[in-house]
Amino acid sequence: MDIDKSQNKIIKDYLDGLEKHKAKRGRRRSPETIKRRLTAIDDKLPTASTLTKLHLIQEKLDLDSALKALETPANINDLEPLFIEVAKPYSERHNISYSAWRAMGVRPEILKRAGIVEA
After folding, report:
1. pTM score > 0.70 for this model?
2. Which of 14, 20, 106, 112 could form a disulfide with 101 if both were Cys (CB 3.0 to 4.6 A apart)?
3. How many CA atoms lie within 13 A of 15 on its CB side?
């Protein structure tokens, strides 16, 4: 893999990790609450109308995905050292500003360690 593709992957993985762990509005779901809702859906499915069944199945798929994400989170701390190593050359090559990184949720201390400073 060439350097550009390698750096792209590191940057993408880090930003994906940030996005995945971004604080969301409303009450945060725990694995327990998701499992309870999945059980409730399983109980309702046998007697649900076809249209309700369709919506319950979609909700179940969404909850299964959310549960998997909660149980196997990408550890952003494992990705940071690689991001710090490649962020500055990537920024220079692609003209990415400090403000753009901040807008994506990259913390100021990480940018400072990467050598990216506010202009």
Report:
1. no
2. 106
3. 13
Q: How far apart are CA 108 and CA 98, in angstroms?
A: 9
**Cα separation values, 35 from 40, 68, 84, 103, Å:** 9, 11, 37, 34
User: Is 92 found in the same domain as 64?
Assistant: no
In the chain, the number of structural domains is 2
pLDDT digits (tens, 9 = 90+) for 65-100: 888 877 665 577 788 999 999 999 999 999 999 999
33 & 64 share domain: yes
Distance CA(2)–CA(29), nearest Å, equals 40
Helix (H) or strand (E) holding 10: helix 3-20
Query: What phi-psi label fits residue 95: left (phi over 0), alpha (psi between -120 and 50 degrees) or beta?
Result: left
